[in-house]
Amino acid sequence: MPTYDYECSYCNLIFDATVPIVKRNEVRCPQCGRLAKRLVGVPAVHIFKPYVHPNLDIKPVRIESRKQEKEEFAKRGLINGNG
Q1: Which tens digit of pLDDT belongs to each residue from 7-42?
Q2: Which end of the chain has fewer CB atoms within 10 angstroms, the N or the C?
Q3: pTM across the whole model
Q4: Are 35 and 65 in contact (CB under 8 A)?
């Protein structure tokens, strides 16, 4: 259920309530019991930042030979799938 912000126009109490969408306009003030007005709120924004391992070298490497490929895999602690 979503959480909405409300303000009571009688006692000026500002509060939040978690209610079903269909009942969002039927919320009563917890202090005086009168109907409260729903406030316009800012939606929550979640920013996804991918995790990058600190030991990961993200610069591309040009592989010229099979020997260099094995060395690069060994240097980074990776296992070459071809043996």
Answers
A1: 999 999 999 999 998 998 999 999 999 999 999 876
A2: C
A3: 0.49
A4: no
Region for residue 33 given its phi and psi (left: phi exceeds 0; alpha: psi -120 to 50; beta: otherwise): left
Domain boundaries, the chain: 3-38
User: Which two three-digit tokens encode residue 1?
Assistant: 């259920």
- Mapped onto helix, strand or coil, the DSSP state of residue 82 is coil
DSSP string over 12-81: --EEEEE--GGGTT--B-TTT-SB-EEPP-PPP---------TT---S-----SHHHHHHHHHHTT---T
End-to-end Cα separation, the chain, in angstroms: 53
Here the tokens at position 33 are 């019991």
